Amino acid sequence: MTTQEWITRGAAHVAKTYGRYPLVVERGEGCRLWDVDGKSYLDFLAGVAVNNLGHCHPKVVAALQQQAAQLIHCSNFFHIPAQIELAELLCERSFGDRVFFCNSGAEANEAAMKLVRKYSAEKFGTDRFEVITALASFHGRTIGTISATGQDKVKAGFNPLLPGFHYVPFGDAEALRQAITPRICAVMLEPVQGEGGVRVAPPGYLAEVRRICDENDLLLIFDEVQVGCGRTGTLFAYEQDGVAPDVMTLAKALAGGPPIGAMVATEKVAECFGPGSHGSTFGGNPLMATAALAAMRTLVEDGVLDNCVAMGNYLRRRLDELKNRYPFIKEVRGRGLILGMELSIPGADIVKQALEQGLLINCTANTVLRFLPPLIVTPEEIDQALAILDGVLQNI
Fold first, then answer.
1. Which residues of the chain have pLDDT under 70?
2. Prediction pTM value
3. Which of 43, 223, 241, 246 is catalytic?
4. Of the candidates 73, 119, 153, 383, which lies 20 to 30 Å from 135 by C-alpha distance?
């Protein structure tokens, strides 16, 4: 079937929750996608930071194929070897002691919010349940996570929302300190705001937040759903600031494509989750856990993180070259291979034109072009992508 035929069929029955581009994807390999008409695209969106190892990485594919022929799913009433190994790996490589598995970033953040409330209720009483988050943050699409999100646009039409959230400017430690009341139990932040416009925490900010939390006996949650699993050049983004949270959430790239989420926590907090306190039918099942093991081992053993750092520096230099040439480019920012180019004009049409020329990027916060290539990207692929983007910008 042609692109238009598929689009027509989809328009009849698929929920209209996305403003979809006129692209019907058929297959992917590495940093490229192909549509049903055979056209090739350089994918610098990577499934919105999901395909950190590119499309159909051989080790992830092999793990899925082998596990699918052995056991796809079983209940969490039983012990699952791959899930246990994945929990061990995540704890060995992070601050954490225990891991709860689920299916998505929103579910991981829901688990984190439940956990900190339960911890606080047991330690301080039920009146201490509120959470401070940041303006321009994004934590998911459930009622709970849009309540935590500091963007009005995702909340429109869904009132009443979950009470107990307060929002402060990202990067302003004094504003956070002033927002603390006896009802606050935790602070929840993204080390890099992805949907909020690729905004990196200012130097020293996360360390000061950690001090504020410690001084007030508050728990600290880092939402690393988009920026974890190597995206910033270290396995977890918090490592770059030398500041460990009490709870961390992961998803997106954790399994290199297949859906899985995780909440990592210290023992003192995690012990509040006993049998029956939380659950997820599909969370950490054999198929997803096996894929995640393959993806995470590839990240830490195959030089992917080093490539992310090198290619992140290279891509940023190339983007800065464009900034020096085009006056409507205000700033290039980010870490590793999550980079944003802020414009003085809306970016949607640039995204559309780039797609027509075979480059996939997106625009967030209306004026920020976001670049999220796979962490295996090469200099040649970056050069090809930037040549396409340059050609588009010349016509603005």
1. none
2. 0.97
3. 223
4. 119
